[in-house]
DNA sequence: ATGTCACCTGGTAGGTGA
């Protein structure tokens, strides 16, 4: 079983690239972030024509998530139950007995901002929901754009970026608290190329200079850990014309 | 030299968020 996550930074712009990537990669499940589409604009027909079932949850201009799959997802949940949120950031569903949670974590902007305070509240709500979700669904994958670089080795210049957004101690502590639920960072279960990131800023020629961060993650529950056979970042779509600033992350599980 | 992109409002540019 192959699962993947990709922040497409506008599905309206990236749909052709998405269809091409799906045709090549043939995942069983893909979660998307930053679709930036209201639900009436979601390209359900185009995806269905290519053989994909979709569940989606969006809003105007910002955020927006989706869950694509070869077979329909069951038990779809939108956003974090019990956490009142104007922003469309979470979609969950069950495919082939695996509970898939796709999430677009808040960016947080700057450590002293209101948006950062929201990020902290959101992270706490996510954690407490997942704690309950794991008791119901031991076979669970949490994946998406976390907007957190968990360790210094996930950052192109940890000295220059120390304490800045994505790299603060409190964000990293939240990441560790997600792991403490019994989740594992699948990327680190395997040898990986050095200095490979999942996001490169559009600005400052960051991709050409390989100045990026690893902020897109796939976390697997203990029950899935032994069946996890691969996890990789697919840098290729970042080289496309008009690319998303994020690369997809792919997970492979034994059936 | 934040060497950008996407989307919005109200425009033939400027603001916001990432």
Structure description:
With 255 residues, the chain is of the alpha+beta class. It has five helices and 14 strands. It has a six-stranded mixed sheet with strand order 3-4-2-1-14-13. A six-stranded mixed sheet has the order 5-6-7-8-12-9. The radius of gyration is 17 Å and the shape is globular. It starts with a strand and ends with a strand. The mean pLDDT is 98. The structure holds one DNA strand of 18 nucleotides.
Topology (elements, then pairings):
Elements: E1 2-7, H1 11-25, E2 29-33, H2 44-49, E3 53-57, E4 65-69, E5 74-78, E6 90-95, E7 98-104, H3 114-136, E8 140-145, H4 169-179, E9 183-185, E10 199-200, E11 212-213, E12 216-221, H5 222-225, E13 228-233, E14 249-253
Parallel strand pairs: 1-2, 7-8
Antiparallel strand pairs: 1-14, 2-4, 3-4, 5-6, 6-7, 8-12, 9-12, 10-11, 13-14
The protein binds one DNA strand of 18 nucleotides through loops.
Index terms:
255 residues; single chain; 27% strand; 14 strands; 5 helices; globular; DNA-binding
Radius of gyration: 17 Å
User: Would you tell me the structural class of the helices and strands?
Assistant: alpha+beta
By DSSP, the count of extended strands is: 14
State the distance separating the first and last CA atoms: 6 Å
A few lines on this structure:
The protein is α+β, with helices and mostly antiparallel strands and 255 residues long.
């Amino acid at each position: 079983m192959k699962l993947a996550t990709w922040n497409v930074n506008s599905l309206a712009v990236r749909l052709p690239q998405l269809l091409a990537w799906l045709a090549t990669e043939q995942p069983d499940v893909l979660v998307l972030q930053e679709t930036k589409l209201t639900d009436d604009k979601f390209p359900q027909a185009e995806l269905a024509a290519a053989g994909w079932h979709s569940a989606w949850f969006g809003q105007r201009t910002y955020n927006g998530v989706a869950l694509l799959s070869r077979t329909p997802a069951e038990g779809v949940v939108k956003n974090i139950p019990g956490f009142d949120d104007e922003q469309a950031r979470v979609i969950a569903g069950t495919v082939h007995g695996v509970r898939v949670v796709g999430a677009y974590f808040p960016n947080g902007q700057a450590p002293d901002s209101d948006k950062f305070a929201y990020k902290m509240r959101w992270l706490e709500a996510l954690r407490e929901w997942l704690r309950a979700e794991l008791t119901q669904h031991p076979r669970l994958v949490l994946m998406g754009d976390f907007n957190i670089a968990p360790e210094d080795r996930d950052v192109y210049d940890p000295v220059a970026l120390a304490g800045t957004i994505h790299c603060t101690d409190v964000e990293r502590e939240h990441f560790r608290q997600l792991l403490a639920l019994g989740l594992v960072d699948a990327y680190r279960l395997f040898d990986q190329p050095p200095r490979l990131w999942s996001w490169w800023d559009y600005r400052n020629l960051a991709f050409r200079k390989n100045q990026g961060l690893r902020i897109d993650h796939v976390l697997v529950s203990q029950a899935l850990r032994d069946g996890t056979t691969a996890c990789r970042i697919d840098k290729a779509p970042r080289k496309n014309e008009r690319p998303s600033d994020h690369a997809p992350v792919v997970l492979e599980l034994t059936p």
